[in-house]
Amino acid sequence: MVRMFLGLLLICLSFGASAQDVKGVVLDEPVPVAKFSLVAQNGTPFTQEELKGHWTLLFLGFTNCPDVCPFTLANLEAVRTELSQLITPDNLPEVVFLAVDPDRDQDVLADYVKHFGISFTGITGERTEIDRLVENIDGFYRLEKSGPEDDAYDVTHSAAVTVINPDGEITAKISPPFHPVTTATYLFRHMRGLETLN
Predict the structure, then answer these.
(1) pLDDT by residue (tens digit) across 134-163?
(2) CB neighbourhood size of 99 (10 A)
(3) How many other β-carbons are positioned within 10 Å of the β-carbon of residue 18?
(4) How far apart are CA 136 and CA 74, in angstroms?
(5) Helix ranges restricted to H, 51-193
(6) Residue 78's pLDDT is what?
(7) pLDDT of 60-75, one tens digit each?
(8) Buried-most residue among 4, 10, 23, 102 (CB within 10 A)?
(9) Is 44 helix (H, G, I), strand (E, B) or coil?
(10) Rounded to an integer, what distance in angstroms lies between the CA atom of residue 27 and that of residue 58?
């Protein structure tokens, strides 16, 4: 046990300098995730209660996104892989993808998220419920439609990842780039209540 602790301490110290590259902001006080009611990719209800009991990395986007979304989701899986060297599998944060374009996202969400990680959860639903959660995490998005018939539109959206603790509270935000090793080190320190180096 002592050897494991010393090993983790050495890892933390050795990665401390590299963690400075992470663009992260830790909130002075945790902010509870407000009530919302959405649906997971398997059709089951997904509310704020599903964010409790484990750490969560929440990212918003859309399934037709050509670059930011797939790049970020792939990086978050790489971050989880790096974190698995530091913490036990049952303590790894879950990744939740909030799909903000339900008209196009709903039918393909299950296939989309499974490409990035078997533990990923995709959620979407009614616009009012999406907006409630987006506002709560201080995110934004805008459908860039040229008109009602436009079905090839883009979606502008925030790229930060919201960190949520096991009590269902927002504790930090991290922004790209999400380098796997440095981001994993940053999250490890944050999850352990250690000072994060920005």
Answers:
(1) 999 999 999 999 888 888 899 999 999 999
(2) 27
(3) 15
(4) 25
(5) 68-83, 102-105, 109-114, 127-136, 180-191
(6) 95
(7) 999 999 999 999 999 9
(8) 102
(9) coil
(10) 16
Which of the four pLDDT bands, split at 50, 70 and 90, describes residue 195? confident
Cβ-based neighbour number of residue 118 at 10 Å: 7
In 87-96, which positions are buried (b, 16+ CB within 10 angstroms) versus exposed (e)? beeeebbbbb
Q: What is the C-alpha to C-alpha distance for residues 158 and 84, in angstroms, rounded to an integer? A: 27
Angstrom CA distances, 127 to 48, 113, 141, stand at: 16, 20, 12
Q: For residue 149, with 0-12 CB atoms within 10 Å meaning exposed, 13-18 middle and 19 or more buried, which class applies?
A: exposed
The answer to whether the predicted template modeling score (pTM) of the entire model surpasses 0.90 is no
In terms of phi and psi (left: phi > 0; alpha: psi -120 to 50; beta: otherwise), the region of 182 is: alpha
Q: How many CB atoms lie within 10 A of CB 153?
A: 14
Token pair of 41 as six digits? 């990719």
Counting every residue written for the chain, the total comes to: 198
